[in-house]
Amino acid sequence: MERTNLLTSFQEFGLADPIARALQEENYHTPTPIQAQTIPLALAGRDVVGIAQTGTGKTASFALPILHRLLQNRIKPASKTCRVLVLSPTRELSGQILDSFNAYGRHVHLSAALAIGGVPMGRQVRSLMGGVDVLVATPGRLLDLVQGNALKLTQVEFLVLDEADRMLDMGFINDIRKIVAKLPIKRQTLFFSATMPKDIADLAEQMLRDPARVAVTPVSSTVERINQRVIQLDHSAKPAALAQILKDDKVNQALVFTRTKHGADKVVKGLARAGITADAIHGNKSQNYRERVLAAFRTGELRTLVATDIAARGIDVDGVSHVVNFDLPNIPETYVHRIGRTARAGADGTAISLCAGEEMAYLRDIEKLIKVSLPKEDRRTPGAHAAPTPPPHRGPRQAPHGHSPRNGDAPTRGKNHRRRGPAAGPARQSDASRHEAAPRPQHGGNGEGLQGVAFLQRKNRPAQPTAQHRPHR
Ligand code: AMP
């Protein structure tokens, strides 16, 4: 791990004035740990491999140095090319990254575009005609654009791979390899992943040149601030237990997790029967629907949101006082991702897990990962609980159903940025979104970088042009 003297103020990075001004307007004063470590290295032109989760400020850790370096060498991108390519696994994350570039680069006058699946290609093709400085893309759509001769990757100077572990989970790795093979060898690559299992480390090894390694230092963590408990109960008792939890006045807003899309819909129906209004987001819901529901959740109009892991990834809503695991996740790291959705912005949070007998093995894995024995309340019917059977879905890693999710830019994130403008549009169900209930295969990850990560709250930004932003030069 690189050890540098960490800078405590953005001024010390020596970022170009227009960027420094935008940061002041964003009210960023102190760099987050991942920013303090990454920015100086990236400014110096190093390749960087960073272990950091969303919510740690990692977008700025790559966007700021890249903007600075683009400014140092202002050239007009050639037609159908981009100077910066950011690959992200999902439409929502891509949109947020583009928004961040536009926000931090608002005084820089660069062009930025989005190439995501699930929306018609025509506009994206047109926005690439004149070339762009920054292109944020999901892998399937990017390859389609390249194969359709709408884009050439020969002029890429900076490559960012974001949420690499998620890319692997979603079956994008072959697409990534194809894309990387088309890029110039001489480029700067910044590679981020929340975890660093072997497959990801191998991929980084192939893509990066003498990379500096950074990781967010475990600090007094969000996880520690979350009041966590487990209710052991019969499977059939879960709907009533959930309704009881949600009726408590202490629940400001609740995010309820289920393992499957079908499960999420079932929970919403069960809550309706108990007189509790809830809505669900998952990959079978249209992009418009998800955005509407998320908007209602953000404003507090919707108190209870039921979500699958993929759909909920990245939901940062201040008001979430409770996370309820209606089902325990079969991958222990997912538990950490889930409960990190509460206790945002310095608030306290509660995470309650409903654990039926067959989920005990999942619970043990979680406790092993977080190194905490969670307090448990046993509500199981006496005598009814047989010895726990091994839980299902713990199979080896493989691309679900053995096909690559081309254009399958599964919806996973929906922070405070809503997609507008030409890039937004009706979503068709992506292949990858259909996979969201598929087992996340085991990758021997060690959960590195997950525990104790400090999360930041993503705030609403003023409306930014999304699909392409090309002010006059
Ligand atoms: P990210 O991990 O990039 O998704 O960032 C999470 C949230 O933290 C976003 O809303 C950012 O705008 C915000 N953020 C990032 N860096 C900082 C900083 N240094 N100070 C304050 N907020 C920040």
From TrEMBL:
Residues 374-473 are annotated as: Disordered. This is DEAD-box ATP-dependent RNA helicase RhpA. Pfam families: DEAD (PF00270), Helicase_C (PF00271). Its EC number is 3.6.4.13. InterPro entries: DEAD/DEAH_box_helicase_dom (IPR011545), DEAD/DEAH_RhlB (IPR044742), DEAD_box_RNA_helicase (IPR050079), Helicase_ATP-bd (IPR014001), Helicase_C-like (IPR001650), P-loop_NTPase (IPR027417), RNA-helicase_DEAD-box_CS (IPR000629), RNA_helicase_DEAD_Q_motif (IPR014014). Keywords: ATP-binding, Cytoplasm, Helicase, Hydrolase, Nucleotide-binding. It catalyses: ATP + H2O = ADP + phosphate + H(+). GO terms for cellular component: cytosol. Residues 39-214 form the Helicase ATP-binding domain. GO terms for molecular function: ATP binding; hydrolase activity; nucleic acid binding; RNA helicase activity. The keyword Heme does not apply. It is an enzyme of class 3 (hydrolase). One of its GO terms (biological process) is response to temperature stimulus.
